[in-house]
Structure formats: structure tokens, C-alpha cells
Design goal:
mainly alpha; 92 residues
């Protein structure tokens, strides 16, 4: 079982590298997207959100804003169990 998981992870890594080499130019994120991007911190995201909200308020619009922090939820996921569940779904 362990060898199978290692082989699957190796295969996945090879596929990702090959895919990135061939299609990397199509995988770039928009400059306005935040999260896990070098040089774009939370402070900049907060500044941008505040600036946009203030602009709409000055224009007389109502603004509804929702923020969800999923970092702790992601950290608490049992990644090994998730991987096994995904593998079972692939081979069904």
C-alpha cells in the first residue's frame, strides 16, 4: 500500500511538471487575485477591499462584504485520509 501511494505521488509529480512545462503560460493567475502569490500580502488585500468599498459607498451603493478564512480549516484536514478517499473515487 505504501509503495502504491509513493508511486502515485511520483507519477502525479511527473505529470504536474510535464503539464507545467507545456501549458505553464496558460496557468498564470490574474494580477488582481490574492492568496499564495509572492509580493501580495494580506495588508494589500485589505487595502484593496477597503478602497473598493469606499468607492461604492461614495457612489451611493450598498455594499455587502463577506470574508472567510479557510487557513485553519485547511491545516486541520487529515491529508492522508483525503488522499485515500480521492484514490478510491478515481478507481471506482
Amino acid at each position: 500500500m505504501i509503495i502504491m501511494i509513493i508511486l502515485i505521488m511520483l507519477y502525479t509529480t511527473i505529470i504536474i511538471v510535464c503539464y507545467s512545462c507545456n501549458f505553464g503560460e496558460f496557468l498564470s493567475a490574474d494580477d488582481k487575485q490574492f492568496g499564495f502569490k509572492k509580493g501580495l500580502s494580506c495588508n494589500y488585500a485589505i487595502y484593496a477591499a477597503r478602497h473598493i468599498v469606499e468607492r461604492f459607498i461614495k457612489g451611493g451603493s450598498t455594499v455587502n462584504l463577506c470574508a472567510i478564512d479557510l487557513s485553519e480549516a485547511f491545516d486541520k484536514v487529515n491529508h492522508h485520509a483525503l488522499f485515500i478517499i480521492l484514490m478510491k473515487k478515481i478507481y471506482l
